[in-house]
């Protein structure tokens, strides 16, 4: 028997393989999946994440960050694809530019992406901005592999961005000119 629930939050629970397999079966119409903290994310085997990949209407993912999350997010991206518009990973240490490439290719309608502490680089930012034209909010704070090249990509491809938060070691004055960021309503760039 299926439940018509649209959003579910699992806070401080033990996310396990069985739950990964049952959620899509019991909640096929789920649009928002929130797993902010989970004590057992590391114990889930990679094949179990394929079960999570059965959500076809998923629009929003919010999750904590651990080693296995990159695999889980990839599985969710594969299933959600064009329906996914919001992704937030509370501690994105294991999110790499490779996952950004996957996300950009599979989820072109993404509007919000929040990945603090992600292990992403300028190339990942470029690919994301080229493919996700509807992206309005991008937060990549504490991402220490980014350089001023990421800001150049924002200037060139981030035309719909309204809210930007990046960590860039040095910010050239010419990139911060008023005409270059006029479309942003909120910008926070750490140095």
Map the helices and strands.
Blueprint: E1 7-13, H1 17-26, E2 32-38, H2 48-52, E3 60-63, H3 69-80, E4 86-89, H4 97-106, E5 112-114, H5 122-131, E6 137-140, H6 148-157, E7 163-167, E8 186-190
Parallel strand pairs: 1-2, 2-3, 3-4, 4-5, 5-6, 6-7, 7-8
Helix and strand run: EHEHEHEHEHEHEE
Strand content: 15-25%
Biggest sheet strand order reads 1-2-3-4-5-6-7-8
Quaternary structure type = single chain
Q: What average pLDDT do the residues reach?
A: 75
Q: How many helices in DSSP terms?
A: 6
By secondary-structure content and strand pairing, the structural class works out as alpha/beta
Determine the fraction of residues in helical runs and give it as a percent range: 25-40%
State the end-to-end distance.
Answer: 53 Å
Write down how many β-strands occur, each being a DSSP E stretch of 2 or more residues.
8
CA radius of gyration is 17 Å
Largest sheet report: 8 strands, parallel
Stretches where pLDDT is under 50 for at least 5 consecutive residues are 178-185
**Overall outline:** elongated
What is this structure, in a nutshell?
With 191 residues, the protein is α/β, with parallel strands linked by helices. The chain is built from six helices and eight strands.
Description:
An eight-stranded parallel beta sheet has the order 1-2-3-4-5-6-7-8, covered by helices on one side. The relative contact order is 0.10. The protein contains six helices and eight strands; from the N terminus they run βαβαβαβαβαβαββ. Strand 4, helix 4 and strand 5 form a beta-alpha-beta unit. The longest helix is centred in the middle third of the chain and has 12 residues. It is an alpha/beta fold and 191 residues long. Helix 5 runs parallel beside helix 6. About 4% of the residues have low confidence.
